[in-house]
Each structure stands twice: as C-alpha cells, then as structure tokens.
Design goal:
Helix content is 74%, strand content 0%. By secondary structure, it is an all-alpha fold.
C-alpha cells in the first residue's frame, strides 16, 4: 500500500510539473496561477501546497528538472575530464553544438525563453535564477578557468555568442527569418556553425598570441 501511495504521489507531482510547463509555453507567465496549474494538472490545489509548498515551490522544482534545462553533462556531451582535455576552440564548438541540440529537444523551453523577453515578474526571475548558476558553471568549464583565464572579457565574449545563438533559436521556433537567414533550413545552421568555428578559431589564435 505504501509503495502504491509513493508511486501515486510521484505521478501527481509529475503531472503538476508538466502542467507548469504547458501553461508557461502556451500562455506565458501571466497564465501561471495556482488555480490554473491545478486545473491543468487535474488535481486539487491543496496537493500543490502539500507537495511543493505553493506556486513558488512548483516553479523552483520545475526549473530544476532536465525537462526544462539540460544538465552540464548533456551540454558537454562527455565527461568533465575528456572535455577539459579539448582545445579552447573544440570546447566552444562542442558546447554550442550540444546547447543547440538540447534546445531542439526542448521546444517548450524555447517558448518560455520567448515569453521571458516580453514579461517580467517574480516567476520569470525564479526560473532565470535556476538557469544562471548552471550556465556559469558550463562557461567556466568551456573556458578552462580552472587552468587559466584567457582574457578579461572571457565571460562577456561567450555571453554575447550564447545570446546570439539563443535569439536565433527562438526565431527558428517562431518560424521567423533573421537578417535573411532562413532558420528552418538545416543548411543555414551548417553555415552558422561554420561562422562560429571561424570566430572560435580566431579567439584561440588571439589568446595564443597574447600568451607569447
């Protein structure tokens, strides 16, 4: 009996988290209320308070799921040790390729990103905070900052490139071309990856020359 109760509890929690994802991706943060989540999940709102402590707890729990945000391991695509052994250029290529692949698997996350650009509230801040630390950890691994710092603008350079990739992914999701790029075509992304490779090669060369 106890085992069945545990299973039912976990299934209910999953339904609640899936309801949060559905509401955020379809209606944005304005549609995210305790009553709406309960209705979408098909549960009484008392269960949301019992299992998560309320709406804030649900948002925090959803932000920690792999369904919303990929793990550092997924973004690296390999062990930390193997990743650290790569050159700076190859680490950058690996991260950006895997990050795009991770977003392709999570269309709801891309939709939520798009809503965040139009809405500002505490719920959005909660999910952004959940992502930020994970993203910073990956950037540090990519730059090999446990070994050395390449320049004083390391973080900013990667943030700019990441923002560009994310913006293009959102435009792809919305089926909206950008600067003449047809983002629904795979050939376009092959060319974007080639452009990124050129940038990463240049960055690595610049850092190498600076170190001499």
């Amino acid at each position: 009996m106890a085992e069945k109760q545990i299973k039912n509890k976990e299934q209910t929690k999953t339904r609640i988290l899936e309801a949060v994802e559905h509401i955020l991706s379809k209606d944005g943060y304005r549609g995210l209320g305790i009553n709406n989540v309960a209705k979408q999940a098909g549960v009484g709102k008392a269960l949301i308070y019992r299992y998560f402590g309320g709406l804030e707890g649900v948002i925090e729990a959803y932000g920690e799921t792999d369904a919303f945000w990929p793990s550092a391991r997924e973004i690296r695509g390999m062990s930390r040790e193997d990743f650290s052994a790569l050159s700076l250029r190859d680490r950058c290529k690996c991260i950006f390729r895997n990050f795009r692949s991770a977003l392709e698997k999570r269309p709801n996350t891309v939709a939520i990103y798009a809503w965040e650009m139009a809405e500002k509230n505490d719920a959005a801040k909660k999910l952004i905070a959940e992502r930020t630390q994970s993203s910073l950890d990956v950037v540090k691994q990519m730059l090999g900052q446990h070994k050395k710092v390449y320049s004083e603008y390391d973080h900013e350079i990667i943030a700019l490139l990441g923002a560009a990739l994310l913006h293009l992914t959102i435009r792809e999701h919305m089926e909206s071309p950008f600067a003449g790029l047809e983002l629904k075509e795979e050939d376009t992304w092959d060319r974007i990856e080639g452009a990124l490779d050129t940038l990463f090669t240049g960055l690595e060369a610049a850092y190498r020359n600076k170190a001499k």
